[in-house]
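Last lecture ended with a question: if I hand you only a sequence, what can you say about the shape of the protein? Today we answer it with a concrete record. The protein is DUF4179 domain-containing protein. Below, first the input exactly as provided, then the predicted structure, then a couple of comments.
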Amino acid sequence: MNREYNEAMDDLRFSPGAKERMAAHLAAAREQARSERPQPDVYAARGGKRRWRFAAAAAVTLVLAGGLAGGAYASGALMGVGNVMDDLFGGPPAQTEVVDKIGRPLGASATSNGVTVTAEAIIGDRANYTIVFSIAKDDGTPFEDIEALDNGLLPLGFGEAAGVHVDGVTASGGSSHFYDADPSDNAIQYVEQMSVTSTSSSIIGHTARVCFQDLYRYGDGGREVLVEGTWNMKFVVDYEDTSINLPAGQPFELNGMGATLDSASISPIALTLEYTADGRMDWIEKESGRMSEREAGERDRFLNPSITVNMKDGTVLGIDASQHSGGSREDGSTTVCHKNIVFEEFLNTDEVASVTIGGTEIALP
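The predicted structure:
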């Protein structure tokens, strides 16, 4: 039986400039939320001949909205791809020529009940993407009675089954959040960041289909409809893939098991791994489809290898694999796994010397 486990990526980071504009208590709130991150629930889903298991994104989305750089959303000007990169990834400013390759302005939009949702920009590689949307009233007035939470998030959400689906994607894991980039204008922003597995080696060139239904405001009394409507749009994922393929076939240690690296690639925003573990998950089927604490431990054992990125200047970047999405499926006596690591900072791949996975160092070609 095939099984897919997707973990929430709940740790988007901002540039140093943005962080300087955040209050210290917001950072403390983020750390508290991280330490209290709940275990994800797991539900079964059927499609074709495969039966996958998906972990719901039950984790708190740890995004502090207060320091994000704003753009002229109300005027109709698209948010620049460079601004998206600076807002969502820390580190030095990304090189313009690299940003122009891995990012694209979009401009697709849909209007319903006097509210327009616009896809501003997308940044990504062959298996990971971040899309920024703006939401604004057509009459130019702001949304009222929306107060940011202590951690900077806006307590908003779309209706069930809303989101982005890229053609060919079989599983995905990630995070999403609402924020107000510029309180002086009438728009708010929605960000969706996902890592995916697909029927092909890349999502580039595939059509992304967006479906949002009803915008809700959450409060102590539950949720209430802020705007009724349906917003559908589509666009082609057409940025360039700057991923570098790493040599594969090496054995490595995986939390007490043996494993073999099947493929690996690194881009300025992510590291993507495919590997085969020498064993099967100790899993017990349940009618509810929910994951027990023991089964969550099994998932972590197979999907969280030790990883470091080693820079040419001697700097070693440690990766907490448990904070990123992954999946697995059984293949006889082994388990085929994939792992998507979205970096906290933009990475200049020209400065990367190697990647170490489970104690095995793999030099970039």
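Comments.
1. The two ends are 36 Å apart (CA to CA).
2. The chain has two domains: 16-236, 244-363.
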